[in-house]
Structure formats: C-alpha cells, structure tokens
Amino acid sequence: MCGIFGIYGSADAARVTVHGLYGLQHRGQESAGVATWDGRRLHVSKGMGLVDEVFGGRDLADLPGGAAIGHVRYSTAGSSDLRNAHPITASTQHGETALGHNGNLVNGGTLRDALEREGAIFSSTTDSEVLLHLLARSGARDPVDALVESLRRLKGAFCFVLLLDGRLVGVRDPWGFRPLAVGELDGSPVLCSETCAMDLLRVRNVRELAPGEVVVADEGGVRSLRPFPPVPPAPCIFEHVYFARPDSRLFGETVFPVRVAMGRRLAVEQPAPTADAVVAVPDSGVPAAVGFSEESGLPLVHGFVRNHYVGRTFIAPRQSIRDLSVRVKLNAMPGQLGGRRVVLVDDSLVRGTTARKIVRMVREAGAREVHLRLSSPPVVNSCIYGIDTPERSELLAASQDLESIRRFVEADSLGYLSPEGMAAAAGGSLDSFCHACFGGAYPVPADEGPSRQRLLFEKERR
Ligand code: AMP
Q1: Has 2 been annotated as catalytic?
Q2: Is 3.40.190.10 the CATH classification of the domain at 254-438?
Q3: Where would I find the beta strands (DSSP E) of 80-208?
C-alpha cells in the first residue's frame, strides 16, 4: 500500500508535498520520494526510509518548480529497494513524466511480459512501470490522450498522481478501490490519498475523485475526464477497518466514527457477559474499543503503553522483525489489568500471531479472563489490490474454525464482527464494497499465470 500526493501551481510545491507525505506516512514506510517540474524539466529525489529520514532538515533547493508529486511506499509488487521507490520517471515522445502509484495491478505481469517481448527495458520490478512503457508506445498526439489510452489497458487497483509534460494528473481506477481526494490550497489544486494530510496543510478538501475519474491540472485550470466504461464501484472496506487514518474522510464517511460504530455493533453481536473491562489493542483497536465500551457500558481501561518510536509492526516486510516488534511496541500494565476480566478489542486478525502475543501479555499482567473481539470478520483471502495480506496459507481463518483459532490465540472466548455489520457501520451494504479479503468475490479477477506468479515471486524474495 502507498500514499500519494500532488500539487500544481504553488510557489512552495516541494515543501508542501513533503508535509503532505508526513500526513500519509501510515500508508507506507519503506521509501519516500518527491518529483517536481520547474517549467522545463523534472527533478526527483527519493530514498529508503521514513519521510523524515529522506527529507527532514533539507532545504529542498534541489526540487525547484511549481508542480510536484510525492509518494510513500510499502511494497506489494516489487521488492523493497531504491530502484522500486516512487516517483518513477521516464522521458518519452509525450514529454518527461513522473508517476506515483497506490494500488496493485492484476494484469501488471501479463502486460510486462508482453512489453519485454517487444524489447522494453524495465528499470524497476514494480507493476506500476508498465504504465510508462504503454505511454511511451502510444501513438496518440496529445499526452493526456496517450495517458488515457494507456490507462484503459490496466486492470486492478490504481490511484496515480503524475507530472505529465508539465501537467498534474490524478487518476482513480473505475472500481475505486483506493481513495484519492482533491483539494485546494491558495488556489492551487491538490491531490492526496487521504484527507488527514490535507488537514495538516489547511488544504480545503473539495471532494473525492469519483471511481474512474481522471483530473488534469494545467495552465488552463482543472478539468475532469471519465474515460473508462463504468463498472460497479468496489471501494476497499479494509481501508475503513484498518488502513486509513481515523481522522480521514473516505468513501463519503469519516473513519473514526465508522470504527466506533463497528465496535458498537461488535458489542451487540458478540457480547462478553462475564467481562468487567474493555481494553483496546493500541492503536488499531482504539476506536472500536471506544464503541464496544459505549455500547456495553463496560469501562474502557488503558492496559498498554505504546512505544511511538517503532513503526507499524505488520508493515515490516520480514516475519522475524515483526515478531520482535510486537513487544518492542506494546507493554501491558499489571496495575491496570491485574485481576480484571478483559474484553480485548482489535480491528482484525490475520495470521493471529499478534493477537496470541497480546493475549499472553494481558494474562501475564494478571488478567483473569481474556475475551478477544475483532471489529471485522475473519480474513480468509489474500488481497490482490494492494493491501499486504499474506498468502492464503498463512491466513489463520482460511483453514481454521472459530474454536481452533480461539485455542491458537489462547483466549477464553473469541468473536468477530459479521460482514453485514461491518459494511453497515461503514455506511453501505456489503455489495457496495470490495470485501474479497473477508470472503467476498474479487471484483476484478487476477490474470492467471504470469502476473500472479510474478507477484508471488517478488514477495518471496523479500
Ligand atoms: P496478525 O498477527 O497477522 O494477525 O496481525 C494482525 C494485526 O495486524 C492487527 O492488529 C491489525 O491491526 C494489523 N494488520 C492487519 N492487516 C494489516 C496490514 N495489511 N498491514 C499492516 N497491519 C495490519
């Protein structure tokens, strides 16, 4: 998953973009990059690590110009190294182009294989680079027409920001899997994965791009295109469950109250009658625990101290690092938990390893009972649209029933929110979201063979 940002016509485009990336840091922590257009050429700076590690303390004089795009990355296709950091750039017959991608193409491997057979030379292993090659080959005269022609060949999840021969372009795929908002800062159009990054810059949030919408900002102003045949929208429900920051507004709802509503429904659907306190797994379980506490009337007790200097544990690409970092990140407090019968609330259970460790920590801190409640349904399928879910074989609920999962995580009881309850809390019916990871259909199937194999190959190499 990734975060993308763009601005056009600002005297301070690079600095604004770097600040925007700080607000999107939760969407990717492996690399950060910014590209600017100075009226004649592109400038690019990117590096591995957090935004602050790459850009903190820099004067950004090497990123001149009034238009900029930025990207934070965590890898879902292509390994985690600098050659795969975005923005990626190319110089083609349609001008100099830089792009940042959030999502995952499900025909990226197929397109890449075909392009390579024609002689294309790729400089990264990302699925995103195929767009630059398609653009380079397009015979359309106008760069925007060439881009649109290329975009029509893509399948899967793609939000893009591009600097295309001096224009700023924003793209949201026809299914609308990932969010992308448009705003305005002192008259300059802004594109941004999540509104929380606009808040920090005091950008006026204008609206979300519609699924299948392309916006182009240039000297003539901002125009909107709808170049794709319409399909039923499928925004990702997991953005609401876990991925997006709670202070963002996406798919028409603010995330925090959605998660509180999930917790409230969870308390109704999966009560814990013997419990005497609700404890959140920080930070991901906090809003749902608030809702569970409000609905059940049980007090919300702060059971953990979180070390804020460690990143999201799940996001570390290697299992060995993830294992260690749960304990580095969270410490349970015996004074708060001792003697209690606890409802432990988290947003989701994927491999179950986090929950197992946390349940143990709560018991070691003296809790007499631990009732685990998840504010989403069992994760049974891997995401092919850009959320880094492990392969199906590693998903606990894909092969285990409720009782074996309960035994694995060593909880006294276990309860999940229903799919319908989750969707209702997010303001829609189940069919109005992509919920493939929770057992729904994949809205756009992956190409068989090469693309999927390539994704797997890249994942295995990590
Ligand atoms: P697990 O140990 O695999 O069951 O991980 C579950 C924990 O990871 C929960 O606390 C979630 O908040 C978090 N989580 C779930 N999915 C993801 C993801 N795709 N990326 C990062 N963290 C996640």
Answers
A1: yes
A2: no
A3: 88-92, 95-105, 156-164, 167-172, 181-185, 188-192, 204-208
Q: Please name the residue whose Cα sits nearest to atom 8 of ligand 1.
A: 314
Homologous superfamily of 2-234:
Aminohydrolase, N-terminal nucleophile (Ntn) domain (3.60.20.10)
Report H helices in 239-314: 255-269, 286-296
Q: Which residues line ligand 1 (CB under 6 A)?
A: 242, 281, 284, 312, 314-315, 346-355, 387-389
- Residue of 233, 244, 241, 185 lying closest to 209 (CA atoms): 233
CA of 132 to the centre of ligand 1 (A): 32
Q: Give pTM, 2 decimals.
A: 0.94
Can you give the pLDDT of all 462 residues of the chain as single tens digits?
899 999 999 999 999 999 999 999 999 999 999 999 999 999 999 999 999 999 999 999 999 999 999 999 987 667 778 999 999 999 999 999 999 999 999 999 999 999 999 999 999 988 999 999 999 999 999 999 999 999 999 999 999 999 999 999 999 999 999 999 999 999 999 999 999 999 999 999 889 999 999 999 999 999 999 999 999 999 999 999 999 999 999 999 999 999 999 999 999 999 999 999 999 999 999 999 999 999 999 999 999 999 888 755 445 556 666 566 678 889 999 999 999 999 999 999 999 999 999 999 999 999 999 999 999 999 999 999 999 888 899 999 999 999 999 999 999 999 999 999 999 999 999 999 999 999 999 999 988 554 454 554 454 443
